[in-house]
Design goal:
- It is a single chain.
- 34% of the residues lie in helices and 5% in strands.
- The chain is rod-shaped.
- A two-stranded antiparallel sheet has the order 1-2.
- By secondary structure, it is mostly helical.
Length: 182
């Protein structure tokens, strides 16, 4: 018979039974751990440094989902629903923009008012006007009658008021007025 020599087969490796680790106190301080205790506990114990360990920050709870935003309008992450606050520089810019807007509108209104006025040109106005000085006892009516006796006195008074930018029909002695030549 043929006999084969017996070969020793290696046995499968069996895991070693786990040794229970010794229980450690809640807070391990350098005073509580001696070198002998560190050796008996194995590699799980580490000596603490003398500086204190900062406390861990609590994790904020997650926000519940708020109302949905329209498509295309996303808010940057971390933005809250707080109202818009302007910095000092932003307030200066807004104030300057408002002042510029007011100045532009006032210049525009002044330009429109000047363009719509029906004032005569200086050359045309001087051709038919005479400057008179109001004498004591004279009224605007008497000045208008003497300036152009052929015209309606009320129309001449209105022309004198318009030409001299008078606020009323009262004149005083010594006042100089431009009147139409008659």
């Amino acid at each position: 018979m043929n006999a084969m020599p017996a070969v020793a087969m290696p046995e499968p490796a069996m895991p070693e039974p786990a040794m229970p680790e010794p229980a450690l106190p809640e807070a391990v301080t350098p005073e509580a751990v001696t070198p002998e205790a560190a050796l008996t506990c194995g590699s799980n114990v580490r000596l603490l440094h003398s500086r204190p360990v900062p406390p861990s920050r609590p994790v904020p709870p997650s926000r519940p989902a708020s109302r949905s935003r329209p498509a295309g309008r996303s808010r940057p992450s971390g933005a809250a629903d707080a109202p818009l606050r302007l910095t000092r520089r932003g307030k200066v810019v807004v104030a300057a923009a408002a002042a510029l807007l007011v100045a532009t509108l006032s210049l525009l209104a002044a330009g429109v008012a000047q363009a719509t006025s029906h004032a005569l040109s200086p050359h045309a106005a001087r051709q038919n006007l005479v400057q008179v000085v109001v004498r004591p006892g004279q009224s605007l009516w008497s000045v208008a009658e003497s300036a152009d006796p052929d015209q309606d006195t009320r129309a001449v008074i209105q022309q004198i008021i318009d030409l001299n930018a008078l606020s009323s029909d009262v004149v005083s002695a010594g006042q100089q007025l431009w009147v139409p030549r008659g």
